[in-house]
Structures are given as structure tokens and as C-alpha cells.
């Protein structure tokens, strides 16, 4: 079969491959500690599930508007205003089939052949692939552990060419857990405005923060940056709703209209009753988020401390999301070899950094129970000592 050339330009997800291998080993009865999860390990809070069940019973089972249920679009606009000081109306919001779909639709609506998209590495693995699928060119900027894997305004400036259209910012970051400070966000905003670029701010982990750090949405810095900002987010990570597939984009009306047209000819509306679960997530108490956060916080402390005790591994302290991004350069191993050996010899699953554009690193997720963390870190320590 002659497949379209675009298929050959993207690679399958490495994160899924390792997770699948770990799962297969578990199914064989092998005691695997998995640090590979890219999703919270909690069930969706009961009141959110109840709202979706109720919507089902009320017959919310039909097609809805492609851009989302009006009630959900207003609830999202209101939340962005009250929590992050972003002045959006419901028409500035489109509901999508998850944050991943948000970004894919955005690239389709915005990027074409000849356009460059600046992506700091380590990056969430789908960004470059989406740019490629849209026909654009990714410009990858390498950041360093010494700078907590954050792009500097100087690096951003240097990467800009007359073809640059979009800058992808992800704070808190997957895979690094890095959170940009207010001053750092302001400095990046200045560069974006000065060069008249657009910025997409992937804020899917905005509620998952530790040690009292705050999230500043880049669009809230001022009116000039606001008009150049696109916010991408969703319900998956903060409300443990990964399988529900509800995300959103907020941005200029012209862009939201374009994305609605694309959505109208591709996926149409997001599952109607799932959107009612999302409405409940925003409208109800946020105690469920706080409870998950406190579990994550404890695990982060333990995992980070245990990691610090392993000679040779380097890891900047993460302030958000639920990952540690560990530099394994001292082992002299490539990330895939390291992860394969770790899984085969010590039954610990981690994700190779090459998937995120950083072959000298591996990603450890603490979206798993404390017992597995203790046991898995013991094994990781033994593995590294054995090298
Ligand atoms: C998980 C994730 C998303 C999107 O997740 P969905 O399940 O599609 O909502 C987007 N960006 C980053 C960085 C993520 O980790």
C-alpha cells in the first residue's frame, strides 16, 4: 500500500512502547515498578462522574455545537478570568478532544509550509510531530539542566528568523517539571511582543504546583502579549480525567472560529456527556485537586530525596507536574539503552529522554503509589551502582 508521505515523517510514540513492555511483563506476573505513567493514578473524582452520569440520564447524548457546549465554554472563560486573570469571553474558547487535540488543531489552523515553530527541548514529544504533520518546520532550542531546562530570552531571540510564527511554551513542563518564574515569563513575553510572534502556552499542569510557587499565564503579562497568546489546557491532568478526552484552547476569536471550522469537518463536538463532567469539575469545590496535589507532593519529596542519594545522577528540583527529569550522562549510556537495561535487570520502567529531545536523560513519573516509589528507587540505586 502506498501511504501518504506525511506518515513517514512522524515516529510512533516511544513513551507508549516502553509502557507497553512494562505492562506485558506485569501481565506475566513479573513485579515491575513503573515510573512511566503520563497520567495521574487516581480515579476521577466521584462528583465529576456523577455529573456525567446525570447528563447521560438526561439525554445529553446527541450532537452538540462543534466548538463545545455553551455552558462549558463560559465556565472555562470564567475560570481563566478568575484564576489566571485572562480576559476571555466564551467565544474565545473552543472545547477539544483533549489538550493533544487542541494543539493539533491549532497547528492545522495556524502553521503551513515555510512557517517555523520554536520549541524548547526537552519538549513534550508530540509538539514537533504536530508541526511536521501541519507542514511546518520545528526549530528546537536546547536548554540545560544548569538553567533548570528553561529557555532564556537570549536563546529565544537567537532562534527567531523572518519565518518564525509561533513559540511553544510549556510551564509547568512535561517532561522536566520546570516552572518558569514570573520574571522569566515577563522576559519571554517581551521577546514575543518585540518580534511580533504568537505564543502557545501549554498550561495543562497549571494546577499541579509545589512549594508555594505560582503559575503566571504569559497572556496575563499585558495587553500586547495577550493578543498574541493562545492558551492550551484541559481537564486530564488536574482532575484525573485523561480518558474523558476534554481539553480546550483560548485565544483570539478569529483563530477559535478557524479551529471550529476544522473541528466541524473532523471530530465535531467532544463527547457531549463528558463535557458535563468537565462543567462539574470547574463549578464544584476544588478540594479534589488539593487532595491529589498533596499526595503528589509527598511522593515528589521522597523521590527527589532518594534520587539525590544516587551518585552521578543530576536532577534539578521540579516545581510542577509529576515528573523528575534525570541526567544520566555520567553512566555513559544512551537513554534507550539505560531504560531497556533498567527494565530487564531491575524491573523498573522509565521513559528514555530521547523521546523528549534529550538523549542524556530519563523521565521518572511519580504518578504511582509510595510503595512502588520506595521499591523502585531502591532498585534504581542498585542498578546505577552496578554500572
Ligand atoms: C498530557 C499532556 C497534554 C494533553 O493531554 P490530553 O490528555 O490530550 O488532554 C498536553 N500537553 C502536555 C505537556 C501533556 O503532558
Automatic annotation (TrEMBL):
<protein>
    <recommendedName>
        <fullName>Aminotransferase</fullName>
        <ecNumber>2.6.1.-</ecNumber>
    </recommendedName>
</protein>
<dbReference type="InterPro" id="IPR004839">
    <property type="entry name" value="Aminotransferase_I/II_large"/>
</dbReference>
<feature type="domain" description="Aminotransferase class I/classII large">
    <location>
        <begin position="31"/>
        <end position="380"/>
    </location>
</feature>
<dbReference type="GO" id="GO:0008483">
    <property type="term" value="F:transaminase activity"/>
</dbReference>
<dbReference type="GO" id="GO:0006520">
    <property type="term" value="P:amino acid metabolic process"/>
</dbReference>
<dbReference type="GO" id="GO:0030170">
    <property type="term" value="F:pyridoxal phosphate binding"/>
</dbReference>
<dbReference type="InterPro" id="IPR015421">
    <property type="entry name" value="PyrdxlP-dep_Trfase_major"/>
</dbReference>
<comment type="similarity">
    <text>Belongs to the class-I pyridoxal-phosphate-dependent aminotransferase family.</text>
</comment>
<keyword id="KW-0663">Pyridoxal phosphate</keyword>
<keyword id="KW-0808">Transferase</keyword>
<keyword id="KW-0032">Aminotransferase</keyword>
<dbReference type="InterPro" id="IPR050596">
    <property type="entry name" value="AspAT/PAT-like"/>
</dbReference>
<dbReference type="InterPro" id="IPR004838">
    <property type="entry name" value="NHTrfase_class1_PyrdxlP-BS"/>
</dbReference>
<dbReference type="Pfam" id="PF00155">
    <property type="entry name" value="Aminotran_1_2"/>
</dbReference>
<dbReference type="InterPro" id="IPR015424">
    <property type="entry name" value="PyrdxlP-dep_Trfase"/>
</dbReference>
<dbReference type="InterPro" id="IPR015422">
    <property type="entry name" value="PyrdxlP-dep_Trfase_small"/>
</dbReference>
Amino acid at each position: 500500500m502506498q501511504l501518504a508521505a506525511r506518515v513517514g515523517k512522524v515516529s510512533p510514540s516511544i513513551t507508549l512502547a516502553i509502557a507497553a513492555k512494562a505492562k506485558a511483563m506485569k501481565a506475566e506476573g513479573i513485579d515491575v515498578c513503573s515510573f512511566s505513567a503520563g497520567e495521574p493514578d487516581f480515579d476521577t473524582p466521584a462528583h465529576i462522574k456523577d455529573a456525567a452520569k446525570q447528563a447521560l440520564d438526561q439525554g445529553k447524548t446527541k450532537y452538540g455545537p462543534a466548538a463545545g457546549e455553551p455552558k462549558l465554554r463560559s465556565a472555562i472563560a470564567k475560570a481563566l478570568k478568575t484564576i489566571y486573570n485572562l480576559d476571555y469571553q466564551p467565544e474565545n474558547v473552543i472545547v477539544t478532544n483533549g489538550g493533544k487535540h487542541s494543539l493539533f488543531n491549532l497547528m492545522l489552523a495556524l502553521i503551513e509550509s515555510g512557517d517555523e515553530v520554536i520549541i524548547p527541548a526537552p519538549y513534550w514529544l508530540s509538539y514537533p510531530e504536530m508541526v511536521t504533520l501541519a507542514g511546518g518546520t520545528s526549530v528546537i532550542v536546547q536548554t540545560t539542566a544548569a538553567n533548570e531546562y528553561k529557555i532564556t530570552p537570549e536563546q529565544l531571540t537567537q532562534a527567531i528568523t523572518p519565518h518564525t510564527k509561533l513559540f511553544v511554551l510549556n510551564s509547568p513542563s512535561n517532561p522536566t517539571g520546570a516552572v518558569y518564574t514570573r520574571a522569566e515569563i515577563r522576559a519571554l513575553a517581551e521577546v514575543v511582543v518585540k518580534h511580533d510572534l504568537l505564543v502557545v502556552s501549554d498550561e495543562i499542569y497549571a494546577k499541579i504546583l509545589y512549594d508555594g510557587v505560582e503559575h503566571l499565564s504569559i497572556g496575563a503579562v499585558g495587553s500586547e502579549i495577550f493578543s498574541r497568546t493562545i492558551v492550551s489546557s484541559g481537564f486530564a491532568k488536574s482532575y484525573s480525567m485523561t480518558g474523558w478526552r476534554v481539553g480546550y484552547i483560548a485565544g483570539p476569536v478569529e483563530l477559535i472560529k478557524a479551529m471550529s471550522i476544522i473541528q466541524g469537518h473532523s471530530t465535531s463536538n467532544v463527547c457531549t456527556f463528558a463535557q458535563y463532567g468537565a462543567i462539574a469539575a470547574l463549578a464544584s469545590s476544588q478540594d479534589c485537586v488539593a487532595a491529589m496535589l498533596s499526595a503528589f507532593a509527598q511522593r515528589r519529596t521522597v523521590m527527589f530525596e532518594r534520587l539525590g542519594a544516587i551518585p552521578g545522577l543530576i536532577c534539578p528540583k521540579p516545581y510542577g507536574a509529576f515528573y523528575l527529569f534525570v541526567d544520566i550522562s555520567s553512566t555513559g549510556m544512551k537513554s534507550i539503552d539505560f531504560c531497556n537495561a533498567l527494565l530487564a535487570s531491575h524491573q523498573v520502567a522509565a521513559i528514555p529522554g530521547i523521546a523528549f529531545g534529550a538523549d542524556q536523560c530519563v523521565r521518572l513519573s511519580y504518578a504511582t503509589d509510595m510503595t512502588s516509589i520506595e521499591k523502585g528507587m531502591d532498585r534504581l540505586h542498585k542498578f546505577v551502582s552496578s554500572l
